[in-house]
Amino acid sequence: MFEKVLVANRGEIAVRIVRALQELGVCAVVAYSEADRDTLAVQLADESICIGPAPAMQSYLSIPAIVSAAITRGAQAIHPGYGFLAENATLVRMAEANGLVFIGPGAEAIERMGDKNVARETMKRISVPTVPGSDGPLQSAEEALAVAESVGYPVVIKASAGGGGRGMREVEDQSKMLDAFAAAKAEAMAAFGNDEVYLEKFIVRPRHIEIQVLADTHGNAIHLGERDCSIQRRHQKLLEESPSPAITPELRQQMGEAALAAVREVGYVSAGTVEFLLSQSGEFYFMEMNTRIQVEHPVTELVTSTDLIKEQVRIAAGLPIGCLDRAGLPPHGHAIEFRINAEDSERGFIPSPGTITALRLPGGPGVRVDTHIYQGYAVPPTYDSLIAKLIVWGVDRDEAIARGKRALAEFKVDGIQTTIPFHRWVLSQNDFIAGDVCTDYISLHGLE
Length: 448
Description:
Layout: E1 4-7, H1 11-23, E2 27-33, H2 40-44, E3 47-52, H3 63-72, E4 77-79, H4 89-97, E5 101-102, H5 107-114, H6 116-125, H7 141-151, E6 155-159, E7 169-171, H8 177-192, E8 197-201, E9 207-215, E10 221-233, E11 236-242, H9 249-265, E12 270-278, E13 284-290, H10 297-304, H11 308-316, E14 334-341, E15 343-344, E16 350-351, E17 354-355, E18 358-360, E19 367-371, E20 378-379, E21 386-394, H12 397-410, E22 412-414, H13 420-427, H14 430-433, H15 441-444
Parallel strand pairs: 1-2, 1-4, 2-3, 4-5
Antiparallel strand pairs: 6-7, 6-8, 9-10, 9-12, 10-11, 11-14, 12-13, 14-21, 15-16, 17-20, 18-22, 19-21
Helix pairs in contact: 4-5, 7-8, 12-13
């Protein structure tokens, strides 16, 4: 096991990693920007080191600063969390060149699954279902029109190097293709420095289902079931649950086997997530693989009694997966995660930075809060708006929903606006209670 690990992230995930490392007996060193000097992760860490000013490009996205901080502090490994450099193959190679271990997959696996076209072709080769669409990047708008004609409208144009909904445009008919194609390429270039785009058939009102996987250097690869991430706004997840109300044991097995086929094909090692679209008629299609820990990993932890961060660290240290005995077991109970963002959900989810003047966190049986905030904490406008994750567990979905309603009512954050009112609204909707959701849920209810 490592003696010291650099945590190259901020916010709630930095706190989460620090706690896991300390429970493993590993010294946790937090790398922070000048804007995050007083954050909870810095306060809880065994050591900390400033890596630059507030702008992420000069701190959390600076590979030289991250690697230098790890070397300076005598760390043996770097944990990237999610976001920032978590899926950056250059960081992996630079870390390895300096004798450091990257707590995540290898550079080649990141590159193969990070390029959406390569990932699609890889899945096709091993007979994992993929959404009908273009073979590789589109070379012109005319080619986009031809492919759309062959698969049928509606279609969606996506950035090859993209994620998080950027560089993505839905196209309802031929008349909108030229503008959508140009807009997607321009946004892809601005966001990723790569304007390659591809086209897929648009699946109407699908669910977003992801499978949690773990693989180690000893030849073990397992999945820990699914998460339903269908409540989204502009392709950004807001609420996740496990198990999915739409997944049968048979479908879980099929999707799990498809996810593990992907893991084995690319020689993947670490924790990861294989994401699928599930149609209303029950067909599933590979969408992408996230080669990192996910924001929503706690719901899997609660229904499988597994610490995924510790598993990541164990695997990176060369140890076998510690939860092999849980592979293939049905989920225990039901968990729901609510992303609490510093956003005004009643005004179009606009950002709401500011100082938290009063804070009351919920508690009681089956309630978990992952957060980095405290009373007096100033939420900066510089970074992602996520300030907390409320995760509830119940013996079944009905109890989880009831517990979620109670915990959200207890949750008090004054001084800024949050998405707590939005989540309380979702839990009051009959269609959500019935498990009838899709990725268009928010727009169908007129909240976008």
